[in-house]
Specification:
The protein is of the alpha/beta class. 40% of the residues lie in helices and 14% in strands. The longest helix is centred in the C-terminal third of the chain and has 19 residues. The protein is globular, with a radius of gyration of 22 Å.
Length: 399
């Protein structure tokens, strides 16, 4: 096993993304092995007993652990700088598990109001049913955080950049307030990817991902990941996952392992294209706000550049003509696809007010800046000039 998992100290990020966590069987395969098995056999009844009593560390059932999943978890752990990682069937399974595994009736969560619609559903609809108090604050307002965290709290949840308006949350400041209140800080880092931002180094305790996004990055598989210290992952999260069953498919894990090998190349091109497209859109006639953390016009640009190494892959922009203009724009696109996914090699665009955040009230949408004319563009790997051309002709059609 030591030969299969060499000492990675000193390996740089790109090397870890190709080789980190690799386990080779006795066949010494080049590509990571795909273990499509639900269970494992034992040499004796005594071995099975020892395995189930945790006296013997080995694979027992693929709902608990699987060699292909182990490789993905180890590789993600290494690039994140975390002590441990567990994967899940989807990004939302990761968010839900990270929250619920550490909450009980009478518990308290403080979260940024600017979250993905399904995250808000968990906070506003599910957790209160079980006696958990939830308080939402404006993520960029430190005074609101300080007031909310003046009381004991169990968990803090934030996205930075947020979905869809790309708010940047001051992670070190919020982590300090949260820890003083006794809370663990969960950061949904999906927009930044593991390469552009390291929340654990900025004070967070737990990082969650929808691996469906940039980690797969090619629209093939669903998956999620939760990363943190060994005590949390082993003693708090793993029993919850083991007994509730949101296990990642080994096939999906294998696809994501292979995708990690090209993640730096893809994310670099995504960001380069996104910055070029954002500059193209910024200040154009017929557009209101153009939100991209890499633009100096972004309200938290300086903070974004302290916490992130690039502006990311997603742009939000607003058509002055509201929903009608937004729909004319979307329907005129010839290259960019209408889709609610993001972080894909193909450029994808959606209208958050009627898709990802449609269940929010009009008042909540207005508070979050999700106006009828707002669009969210996930910039892909196409030639940036072709993306500009498509946006140009769609803008003309929308006006």
């Amino acid at each position: 096993m030591s030969e299969n998992n060499p000492d990675t100290d000193g390996w740089r990020e790109a090397t870890l993304l190709v080789r980190g966590g690799t386990i080779r069987s006795e066949h010494r395969e080049t590509s990571e092995g795909l273990y499509l098995t639900s269970g494992y056999v034992y040499g004796s009844a005594e071995e099975a007993e020892a395995s189930f009593s945790n006296k013997l560390e080995r694979y027992v059932y693929s709902r608990y652990a699987n060699p292909t999943l182990t490789m993905l978890e180890d590789r993600l752990r290494l690039i994140e700088g975390a002590e441990a990682c567990r994967t899940t069937a989807s990004g939302m399974a990761a968010v839900y598990a990270a929250l619920v595994c550490q909450l009980k009736a009478g518990g308290r969560v403080v979260a940024a109001r600017a979250l993905f619609g399904s995250c808000l559903y968990i906070l506003q609809e599910i957790l209160p049913r079980f006696g958990v108090e939830v308080e939402l604050v404006d993520g960029i307002d430190l005074d609101q955080w300080a007031a909310a965290l003046s009381r004991p709290t169990d968990v803090v949840l934030v996205e930075s950049p947020s979905n869809p308006t790309l708010e940047i949350v001051d992670l070190p400041a919020i982590a300090e307030l949260a820890h003083a209140a006794g809370a663990r800080v969960i950061v949904d880092n999906v927009f930044a990817t593991p390469l552009l931002q390291k929340p654990l180094k900025l004070g967070a305790d737990i990082v969650v991902y929808s691996a469906t996004k940039h980690i797969d990055g090619q629209g093939r598989c669903l998956g999620g990941a939760v990363l943190g210290d060994t005590a949390f992952i082993k003693d708090v999260l793993t029993p919850f996952l083991r007994h509730t069953g949101p296990a990642l498919s080994p096939f999906n894990a294998w696809v994501m392992l292979k995708a990690l090998e090209t993640l730096p190349l893809r994310v670099e091109k995504h960001c380069r294209n996104a910055l070029e497209v954002a500059r193209f859109l910024d200040g154009r006639k017929g557009l209101g706000r153009v939100l991209y953390p890499g633009l100096e016009s972004h309200p938290q640009h300086a903070l974004a550049m302290r916490q992130m190494t690039a502006g990311g892959t997603v742009i939000a922009f607003e058509l002055a003509g509201g929903k009608d203009a937004a729909f004319r724009f979307l329907n005129a696109l010839k290259l960019i696809d209408i889709s609610n996914n993001l972080g894909d090699s193909k450029s994808l665009i959606c209208h958050p007010a009627t898709t990802t955040h449609q269940r929010l009230s009009d008042a909540d949408k207005a508070h979050l800046g999700i106006t009828p004319g707002l669009l969210r563009l996930s910039v892909g790997l196409e030639d940036a000039a072709d993306l500009r051309d498509d946006l140009e002709q769609a803008l003309a059609a929308a006006s």
